[in-house]
Structures are given as C-alpha cells and as structure tokens.
What we know:
single chain; mainly alpha; Growth Hormone, Chain: A; 85% helix; globular
Amino acid sequence: MTKNYRIHSNPSEALIAATIGFFVGFAAVALFNVTAKNFKEAMGLDPVQVGLLVAMPMLSGSLLRIPFSAWVDTDGGRKPMLSLLGLAILGLLGLIGLIVAYYPDNLNAGLFPLLLLLGFLAGCGIATFSVGISMVSYWYPQSRQGWALGTYAGVGNLAPGIFTFLLPAALAAWGLLGAYAAWTGLLVLGTVIFIFIGYGAPYFQLLKQGLPPEEAKEIARQHGQEIFPAGSILDTLLISAKNWRNWVLVALYFTSFGGFLALTAWLPTYWRELFGQPVRLAAYLTAYFSILASLIRIWGGSLSDKIGGERTAYLAFGAVLVGALVMTFSHSFLPALLGETLIGFGMGVGNAAVFKMVPFYVPDAVGGASGWVGGLGAFGGFVVPPIMGYFVKAYGKVQGYPLGFTVYIALGVLALLLVWVLQATRHRYVAARA
C-alpha cells in the first residue's frame, strides 16, 4: 500500500525558482568584476594581480559546476542551489565587511589573499547555472526541454548585460558600499524566493519521503517526469564521463558558452583599442552582445524542440563561423558590429541547442553531464582571450585585433564537424536505446 505523499511545486514554479537563483547569482559576480578597478587603485595592484582577481569568480563558477550539478542527481537541486547561493552571500558579506573596515585608505596588499578568497566565494553564484539546468531537465518532459532550458538560461544570462547598464548609475548614487549592500540584498531576496518554491522533481521528493525507488519512479511518471538518475554523485559523473557524446557536447559548449564568456571580457578592449570608442560606449556594445546572446537563447530552445538539437546547432555554429569571418576582415565600425551580432546570435542559439541534447544523449546522468558540459565548457572563457591577445602582440593593434577572430573561425569549423558526427550517429544511438 502506498503511503501518503506530497509533491511540492510544479514545473513552472521550479523553472521560475531556478531562473531567479541563477539570475541573482550571476548579477552578484557582475558587480565584483566591474568594481575590481576600485580595489586595484586602493591596493596598488599590478595587471597580473588584477587579472587574477577578476578570474577568481570565473574559476569557482566553472569548477564547482561539476560536483554541484552531479549532486542534483541525488537531491533534485534544492540543496545544491541553496548551498551555492549561501556561499555567494557569504562572499558578498565578506566584501562588505572588508569595505567597511579598510576601504579605501587601509586596504593594503596583505589583504589580497582574503580578497581572492571572497571573490572565489562570490563566484559560486555562477555555478548555480548547471544546478538549475539539471533541476529543470528533470521537471520537464523531453518535448519541452528545449524551451524550458532556453528560457532558464536565456533569462538568467541577461544578468551581466543588464547590470552593465545599471552599475555606473548605482556606483555614482550609492558608492561602493551602497552598491554592494544593494546587490547583496538582491541575492538574499532571490535566495528566499527559491526557498519557498524551488524543489526537486517529484522522484527526488518521493525518495526523501521514504518511498522505494521503483515506486517513486512510477508515481513520478504519473506527475509527468520522464528521466531519472542512475545512482550516486560519483556514479553520475562516471556514467557521463564514459559516454563519448558527453565530450562532444563539452567541446561544443566550449565554443558557444566559453566563447561567449571570452568575448564579454575581450570586446570592451576590442572596441576601445581598435576603434577608439569611449569606455562607456565600449561597455554598451559589449552589453548588447551579452543581452542578444541571452535573449536569442530562449528562441533557440524552442527551435531545438521543433527541429532537433543537431539541426539547430548547424544554424548556430554556422552563424558563429560567418560572424568570425566578417570580424576577421573588418576594419570599420559597421561591419564589425554586424560580425559581433552574428556571433552573438550563433552563440546564444548554440548554447540552447547543446543543452537540448544533454538530456537526450545522457538521460541517465543529466546532472553529471550538465556539470561536465557547463564546467569544462566554460573554460573557453579562460583559454580564448590570451590567444587573441597573442595576435595583438604579434601583429600590432590594427592587424592583431581582427586576426584574433581566426580563433573563432577554427572553433566554428570544428563545432560544425562535431555536430555532423552527432547527426551521423544519431540513428544508431536511437536504435541502441530502443
């Protein structure tokens, strides 16, 4: 006889909760990156130290995606999300304490390691991405996952672009301490909302209520859940790691999302140094790229539902390739803006297509796969900018900045070849699963 049980939340509420968690987590890091210059001036940091400081949130935001996303396969997403948001809040509170106690006159170089640690904690907000991806994947049927995941990631990824516009006014009106207090308040508010409506899919809730796994699966299916995890955190990481298609998706996401992160860091310098644009306009042009890639991801998810992830990926990485070709040969403003637009379009749609394919190709370890894809894929944000910088150093500003985009030509070609491999082996994969 089935014991009494209760299912908290529903797919819509879970989607809203996960999106809010990712949005506020990402917004917090946007503040830290922009205000790094304040710490640089107060502490007299050299360029290498500034680069390390800005990289710390990206480091935690990438690496922690892997274990915390895998944790979703045993919990459903509630505890991993709240843990990461809690760590991000701790990081911002620490930064507030540092500002109150030492900024600006007493903030010395001896406090630099502490500043790095607090930046690392603040970056935990970025790692919520893979947790939310896995959580939403379990809630939604595969026929709607493209739309749901595209909406989640598209809205959540708007945070850096939106706050790029808001930060100058906030800093001018409230100062450094006021801005950090406001952003911390936003993060706490988002965390509280998640506490009330952010629950794992029915299967995970039923397990916590003491139902046997098979009985929990049967009831969860009645509530619309279609995919289920295969085992422990280690199991899900190993299962996904043994699936060669998982690594193809990692490579694709390296281009689409890692490339997106790289350009959000590179474009302000590109527009300022090559075309002599004012700092604020260069920031707005970068925000345009970020917002475009985020919004178009929603449409990319819906398109993936209609025509499939592989076909959508062909369109996406084709656009990245064409955009990169345009920017490689652009020495005037309008063609460069067109190239940026094409790349932003392609990356946004590509991000959606990749995560449409994750639950399809790795259905028994969605959390583990999402962790590998989201975490390792994001390393493109670290790898690509130094390579583009090499072109500037080797060929000078006028030639080097455009030639740097040959990196994206190579990545675009490679991505299209990898999509072809997935498409060519899809029928064999479907037959093996039948």
